[in-house]
Amino acid sequence: RAKTSGRSVYRFFEMEMDASILHRTLLEQRLRSALAEDEIQVHFQPILDLASRKIRGFEALARWSDRDFGHVPPNQFIPIAEDCGIISELTDRLLREACRVASKWPEHMFLSFNVSPVQLHDHTFPLKVMSILADSGLSPDRLILEITETSLFKNPRAAKAVLEQLAEARIQIALDDFGTGHSSLGYLRDFPISKVKIDKSFTLHMEDDAECAAIIDAILVLAKGLGIETVAEGIEQPAVMAKLTESGCQFGQGFLFGAAKAAARIDEMVAEQGSGATMPYARDEPSG
Ligand code: C2E
Ligand code: MG
Ligand code: MG
Ligand code: MG
């Protein structure tokens, strides 16, 4: 009897596995065709200078909505694109589109763009970026490439060579999701990093979790000592914005200021900045 039930448990897992492999295979097929049909879009989330509460730039975030699977989050489809060898083509497309959009913003606004670990090990990547910048007319010093600690950890020598070429071209490098990966503080000295992005898992809980608040304070002190700028992600509450500003964090992004939106929908935001308005906009707050 034990044998039989053991076998049925095994069969159960086998079926579960089949289902997930099938799901993954279908998703991969749909992703390939979405790339071919140019259906993956880039949205833009504002990044503010916290002291002045003005928009200083936008982070480009990939968006994909499939007719069968619906909205698939980038945390799900980017790893698939990496695994099945289409990430370089996807990055190329998205970066090209993001640079085209950013080239129309006022000159003091930067474009922040997420780069996959795969690209940090591709010695042709810096040249590709330079050529995309040249085509769009966006100046290299207005581009920030966001990388993660994990991507440095895998092959530090290859990553260093790529990052140094990018830095020589005056492109900035930001360390994303800081504090969540293989946080080797040495990375901040060894690589040409000009910004760290404090992961939203800390920002979201800094008010009710003393440890999150302590980690943020430590990152701010460390970055200041090293001459590295700080960006906090996941700002949802006015009190969190106030605390971070007071603690000397330079930049912030989060739903308090706005989620990522299609290029056509940020035009107004970009225009309001020219008029001297500060965020979050008063007109968005309940009146009376
Ligand atoms: P990330 O680079 O750390 O991006 C920030 C994520 O936090 C975004 O999720 C954004 O929508 C979300 N977010 C922003 N403000 C708030 C907030 O106030 N509260 C909360 N709860 N979340 C907030 P998204 O767009 O789902 O992207 C997830 C991750 O996928 C990104 O994390 C990035 O690692 C990756 N990703 C997105 N687009 C690309 C891309 O074009 N290329 C690559 N390689 N990775 C991408
Ligand atoms: Mg990012
Ligand atoms: Mg992040
Ligand atoms: Mg993240």
From TrEMBL:
Q: Which residues of the full protein are shown?
A: 203 to 490 of 498
Which source organism does the UniProt entry give?
Roseibium polysiphoniae
Classify the source by domain of life.
Bacteria
Among its keywords, does the record have Signal?
A: no
Task: Report the protein name in the record.
Answer: EAL domain-containing protein
Q: What keywords appear on the UniProt entry? A: Membrane, Transmembrane, Transmembrane helix
Instruction: Please state every residue range assigned to the domain named EAL.
Output: 24-274
UniProt keyword Thylakoid, yes or no: no
